From TrEMBL:
<keyword id="KW-0479">Metal-binding</keyword>
<feature type="binding site">
    <location>
        <begin position="42"/>
        <end position="48"/>
    </location>
    <ligand>
        <name>substrate</name>
    </ligand>
</feature>
<feature type="binding site">
    <location>
        <position position="89"/>
    </location>
    <ligand>
        <name>Zn(2+)</name>
    </ligand>
</feature>
<feature type="active site" description="Proton donor">
    <location>
        <position position="55"/>
    </location>
</feature>
<comment type="function">
    <text>This enzyme scavenges exogenous and endogenous cytidine and 2'-deoxycytidine for UMP synthesis.</text>
</comment>
<dbReference type="Pfam" id="PF00383">
    <property type="entry name" value="dCMP_cyt_deam_1"/>
</dbReference>
<dbReference type="InterPro" id="IPR006262">
    <property type="entry name" value="Cyt_deam_tetra"/>
</dbReference>
<comment type="similarity">
    <text>Belongs to the cytidine and deoxycytidylate deaminase family.</text>
</comment>
<dbReference type="GO" id="GO:0072527">
    <property type="term" value="P:pyrimidine-containing compound metabolic process"/>
</dbReference>
<feature type="binding site">
    <location>
        <position position="86"/>
    </location>
    <ligand>
        <name>Zn(2+)</name>
    </ligand>
</feature>
<dbReference type="InterPro" id="IPR050202">
    <property type="entry name" value="Cyt/Deoxycyt_deaminase"/>
</dbReference>
<feature type="domain" description="CMP/dCMP-type deaminase">
    <location>
        <begin position="1"/>
        <end position="128"/>
    </location>
</feature>
<feature type="binding site">
    <location>
        <position position="53"/>
    </location>
    <ligand>
        <name>Zn(2+)</name>
    </ligand>
</feature>
<dbReference type="GO" id="GO:0004126">
    <property type="term" value="F:cytidine deaminase activity"/>
</dbReference>
<keyword id="KW-0862">Zinc</keyword>
<dbReference type="GO" id="GO:0055086">
    <property type="term" value="P:nucleobase-containing small molecule metabolic process"/>
</dbReference>
<dbReference type="GO" id="GO:0005829">
    <property type="term" value="C:cytosol"/>
</dbReference>
Amino acid sequence: ETEELLIKYSLEAKETSYSPYSNFRVGAALLTKDGTWFKGCNIENASYGGAICAERTAYCKAISEGHKEFVALAVSSDQDEIVSPCGICRQFISEFGPGTLPVYLVTAKGAHKLITLSELLPLSFALEQGQKFLMK
Ligand code: THU
């Protein structure tokens, strides 16, 4: 069932993490409205600042393949505690919404906390606010 697949795929996605600097492997699994799955891993860089998070990798793969409507996201790491998306990822994900998007925060053992996108980023600056700003 979808929840089990989200957790399973987010743990699988972690396996291709490129994280030689932090050894902090992160995996993400993303389900689109038409039922397509995308996995993503964090990809670090010698510049440190050039790294990209697993969530944004998954989103970039999905969007660049023509998907813009999402139904669920899961993020996992090797920790026993849940991994919480960074602020850059929260803003990036908010662009596509919906605020009710279920986000599964998965532990190394497959336990999870479920939270919505608008709980992760309340009062977000998203497209609609941008449009209001542009129209002034
Ligand atoms: N990182 C993620 O990939 N997702 C998160 O939700 C939190 C942080 C990675 C781990 C490490 O590679 C760091 O971000 C570098 O950007």
